Amino acid sequence: MSNTLPSLLLVGGGRMGSALLAGWRERGLSSVLVVDPSPAAAALAGPNVTVVASAADIPHGFAPGAVILAVKPQMAAQALPAYARFGGHAVFISIMAGKTLNAIAAMLGVKAAVVRAMPNTPAAVRQGITVAVAGSHVTPAQKTLADELLAATGLISWVESEAMLDPVTAISGGGPAYVFLLAELMEQAGLDQGLPPALARQMARQTLIGSAALLAASDEDAAALRIAVTSPGGTTERALAVLRADDAWPETFAKAIQAATERSRELSS
Ligand SMILES: NC(=O)C1=CN([C@@H]2O[C@H](COP(=O)(O)OP(=O)(O)OC[C@H]3O[C@@H](n4cnc5c(N)ncnc54)[C@H](OP(=O)(O)O)[C@@H]3O)[C@@H](O)[C@H]2O)C=CC1
Ligand SMILES: O=C(O)[C@@H]1CCC=N1
């Protein structure tokens, strides 16, 4: 990250806000002011990071180059208007699920420069992926700044169609939860088969970590890596016949993503 970045204002230092902050920190960020009323947020303070409890505590004259909106979508109407005053030169980067560019601009001023982005929690270790769309008032320089901030926590892809952000939210935004659920289910299955708890946990975790590392290091795609595990007539083939039955993972996963996509659309206004 360049060391000429303007100051940043992070509104909401919860799970995702703090993950972004950790990613920026690791990369070497410019100064960040965090607004968050939660007592837990005070722990985010450190070199170049100041935490205040409300917008009223922002020092007079503070002029952030970017305001990152990381509060719950349900808090937006209450929280956002206090930041409309920064709209003169700051780019607003919303990571709120569902909230559209128009809905955000309605809370900040119709001419506000708004980027809608969907990161995920691996941002905390700079392994995230963010998909973003820029609103019509975002200048090229503001888009470059947003790109630099979001790319500091992992991969970034920009899209032209805002409608894509709903399935993106369902797939990569929430995706880490599905992977962690798999770890939980593998651990439980190990316990059910009589394995000692510590071993069941270690196997589940390291299998996910090692598989992700193999996928990252390999030129082969996921299907080829799956086939490489699956000996004809062997044990994995039996398990996959259960998991890949039409009414099992393929149907269930498609339904789950559809449900999350619809929820993102419901949160739009
Ligand atoms: N978690 C995830 O994996 C992802 C989340 N997102 C999006 O990120 C946003 C934040 O989610 P997440 O981090 O999970 O939620 P959290 O509840 O962990 O974080 C939100 C934080 O905002 C604080 N807060 C509440 N009101 C205000 C306010 N008026 N001003 C400033 N801060 C306030 C909350 O404090 P308190 O707890 O005291 O209310 C909390 O610390 C959401 O919009 C979500 O859709 C996007 C991608 C992934
Ligand atoms: O569950 C949510 O609504 C947010 C958006 C993606 C991940 N967490």
Rg, Å, rounded: 21 Å
Number of strands: 8
Q: Which spans of ≥5 residues are poorly predicted at pLDDT below 50? A: none
Q: Outline, from the CA principal axes?
A: elongated
Order of helices and strands: EHEEEHEHEEHEHHHHHH
- In the sheet with the most strands, the strands line up as 3-2-1-4-5-6-7-8
Ligand catalogue:
NADPH dihydro-nicotinamide-adenine-dinucleotide phosphate, (2S)-3,4-dihydro-2H-pyrrole-2-carboxylic acid
Tally of helical runs: 10
Distance between the termini: 33 Å
CATH topology of the largest domain: Rossmann fold
User: What is the CATH domain class of the largest domain?
Assistant: Alpha Beta
Proportion of helical residues: 40-55%
SS class: alpha/beta
What count of domains describes the coordinates?
A: 2
Mean pLDDT: 96
Major beta-sheet overview: 8 strands, mixed
Proportion of strand residues: 5-15%
Layout of strands and helices, then pairs:
Elements: E1 8-11, H1 15-27, E2 32-35, E3 49-52, E4 66-69, H2 76-79, E5 91-94, H3 101-108, E6 113-118, E7 128-134, H4 140-151, E8 154-158, H5 165-173, H6 175-192, H7 197-217, H8 222-229, H9 235-243, H10 249-266
Parallel strand pairs: 1-2, 1-4, 2-3, 4-5, 5-6, 7-8
Antiparallel strand pairs: 6-7
Helix pairs in contact: 5-10, 6-7
